[in-house]
Amino acid sequence: MTAFLHIDMDAFFAAVEELDHPEWRGKPIIVGADPRGGQGRGVVSTASYAARAFGVRSAMPIRQAWQRCPGGIYVRPRMARYTAVSEKVMDIFRSFTPRIQPISLDEAFLDVTGSMRLFGDPVAMARRIKDRIQSDTGLTASVGVSAVKSVAKIASDLEKPDGLTVVPEGGEKAFLAPLEVRRLWGVGPKACAVLERLGIRRVGDLQERSKGELVRIFGRAAGEHYLNMANAVDPREVHDDEEARSISHETTFLADVQDPEVIARTLLWLADKVASRMRKQGVRGHVVTLKYRTEDFRTITRRATLKQPLEHTNDLFETAKRLWKRFEGMGGKVRLLGIGVSRLESGGANQMTLFDRENRNREGAAEKAVDRVRARFGNRALFRGSLLDERT
Ligand SMILES: [Mg+2]
Predict the structure, then answer these.
(1) Per-residue pLDDT at 381
(2) 365-374 contacts, C-beta under 8 A, 24 or more apart
(3) pLDDT tops 60 at residue 360
(4) Which residue among 18, 107, 172, 311 is the active-site one?
(5) 298-325: pLDDT as tens digits
(6) How far is 55 from 241, CA to CA, in rounded Å?
(7) Dist. CA 8 → ligand 1 center (Å)
(8) Whole-angstrom Cα distance, residue 8 to residue 130?
(9) Confidence of residue 276 (pLDDT cuts 50, 70, 90)
């Protein structure tokens, strides 16, 4: 028997703010971009449950949030604090199983199949983990329990906050049948609209359709995927912690940007942020992703896989610039830029020439010094030469 838990912290960023500011308890808290009196750009990261009662949702433009809830408490994200709490939570998970796959700061899959002898059945384990989170951090999480990974994820969302939803093995299809198709993994608003036109609103409606029909409409990959998800067929395993991890940083511009100078400076700033976090964690990575959002809200990513892992600001900056070149021809303005590094490995000697290594060691030492200064005096104290003016 296989058992997966999907654990998701409840309104995580907002819950941490509420924890740190007891006077805000029960009030509508909106973590995200600066609303600037309804003129702000960027989006809501997380809304507390009290804010959700006003119709505020994560990923909603911050202006719209302001319209719906002008009396809310608007706070900028404090990522360092959330990361610290996240590490505590992930440590709790790791004390129950080494097979964990973090999906984001506040969400992870746990394969607990091998831990039952030690900790009891998956439901007992889910209760213990929830209790530990509550006592160690003061926060609540919702858990889904299932033999099928994708079903565990859907389950964790059903009884939020502080939920525990158990899907018995063999009962997955019956569990999914009454749910709306939008709950299925990978079924976005577009697919939902098409499905609705076919008379498919519930997962149960989808379960009754033939593979041939769905493949004809959506193409092979998507058609098969929807049918598999509806029928709780999900062969994916929990990936290893190491593989799944990535380090990334992104920024939304106050006004859409086209100036190559500003873009280059921003890429350098992002590369520096990501590289400094990589150094702090003692890792380097093989895959660099550049994320780009256009003024009309399309999000595009470009990826480079490197033979040699990188760890330094300059290498990351150069790679990001190369990726950027592929966008440049498209014209148009940029709304958001992000850089991510994945396929991380812990630092260790790699296959560099001696010359390379010497050079890099020197650069590495310089960057470590930068990190030390930054740790003492804060981020603004030390910006690279071409970054002197403050970025948003
Ligand atoms: Mg969450």
Answers:
(1) 39
(2) 367/275, 367/276, 367/279, 367/312, 367/313, 368/279, 370/276, 371/276, 371/279, 371/280, 374/276
(3) no
(4) 107
(5) 778 888 888 888 988 889 999 999 998 8
(6) 35
(7) 5
(8) 10
(9) confident
pLDDT digits (tens, 9 = 90+) for 17-64: 999 999 999 999 999 999 999 999 989 999 999 999 999 999 899 999
Q: Taking CA 128 as the corner, what is the angle to CA 122 and CA 130, rounded to the nearest 5 degrees? A: 105
CA 140 to ligand 1 centroid distance, Å: 10
Dist. CA 257 → ligand 1 center (Å): 31
**DSSP calls for 246-274:** EEEEEEEEEEEE--HHHHHHHHHHHHHHH
Question: Nearest CA to 273 among 326, 333, 320, 334?
Answer: 320
Distance 144 CA to ligand 1 centre (A): 13
Amino acid code (one letter) for 253: F
Q: Is 107 a catalytic residue?
A: yes
Between the CA of 16 and the centroid of ligand 1 the distance, in Å, is 12
Distance from the alpha carbon of residue 12 to the mean position of ligand 1, in angstroms: 5
Which of 297, 295, 299 shows the shortest CA–CA distance to 256? Answer: 295
Regarding pTM above 0.85, the answer is no
Task: Answer for the pair 266, 391: CB distance below 8 angstroms, yes or no.
Answer: yes
pLDDT tens track for 225-273: 899 999 998 766 555 444 457 888 888 887 778 888 888 888 988 999 8
Give the up-direction half-sphere exposure of residue 208: CA atoms within 13 A in the CB hemisphere. 10
Ligand 1 centroid–CA 9 distance in Å is 4
Q: Token pair for residue 179?
A: 């749910």
Rounded Cα distance, 303 and 284, in Å: 16
- For residue 149, how far is its CA from the centre of ligand 1 (angstroms)? 17
As beta bridge partners, residue 31 has 46, 75
Q: Which two structure tokens, joined as six digits, stand for 8?
A: 């998701």
Tokens of 359: 């050079």
Q: What is the helix, strand, coil percentage profile of the chain, to 5? A: 45, 25, 30
What is the distance between the alpha carbons of residues 102 and 123, in angstroms, rounded to a whole number? 20
**Tokens linked to 205:** 């409606």
The Cα–Cα gap between 290 and 251 comes to: 12
| Strands of 246-257's sheet in order across | 246-257, 334-346, 283-294, 299-310
